[in-house]
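hey can u check if this looks right to u? its 75 residues, i copy pasted from the old doc so theres a chance i mangled smth
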Amino acid sequence: MKSIKISLEMAQKVKEFVNVTQNYPNEILLKSGKYVVDAKSILGIFSLDLSQPLTVEVYGEDTDGLLDALKKFEA
């Protein structure tokens, strides 16, 4: 498992983030405090407090390409 901190303060950023995550077969979770949602679920993401930095956890093999693609969302 690898993790990074990201910021998704605007709806457009959430849409871009989901578009990126849907292109990868890895299990990707998004955490905000005690809440955890599937990072490929736009409705799940909007249920989180987006004013705070979020933690992305990526599980599985070959995560480097995905982590590189998520760098533009880093907090």
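The chain has a mean pLDDT of 95.
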